[in-house]
Design a protein that fits this description.
Strand 1 (2-15) and strand 2 (20-31) form a beta hairpin. The mean pLDDT is 91. The protein has 86 residues and is mainly beta. Strands 1-2-3-5-4 form a 5-stranded mixed beta barrel. It has strands spanning 2-15, 20-31, 34-44, 54-65, 68-78. The protein has a single domain, classed as Nucleic acid-binding proteins (OB fold (Dihydrolipoamide Acetyltransferase, E2P), Beta Barrel), CATH 2.40.50.140.
């Protein structure tokens, strides 16, 4: 398993169970020599990741299946909260 930092927009959120959501992130490119179409991460509902918001996500990747990189969220922060706009 590899741990990486990604900056991406959340495209969709779906509920897995009462404690866990599945977060779909935008990604088109190459990771570790393999072409990717998207990133699908599982994480706690308490992460409060919302559709159409950009995030800085520290994630652990598990596998690549047909261009979709699967993993789990370790930490996340909304990108707009990371900069000083003053």
């Amino acid at each position: 398993m590899k741990t990486v930092l990604i900056v991406s927009k959340c495209l969709r959120v779906s509920k897995v169970n009462k404690n866990e959501n599945c977060y779909y992130f935008h990604f088109k490119g190459v990771y570790a020599g393999e072409i990717l179409k998207s990133i699908k991460l599982y994480g706690q509902v308490s992460w409060e990741i919302h559709k159409d918001e950009e995030y800085l996500v520290y994630a652990e990747f598990l596998e690549n299946q047909n261009g979709v990189l699967f993993g789990k969220v370790i930490k996340s922060k909304r990108l707009s909260d990371c900069s000083d706009l003053s």
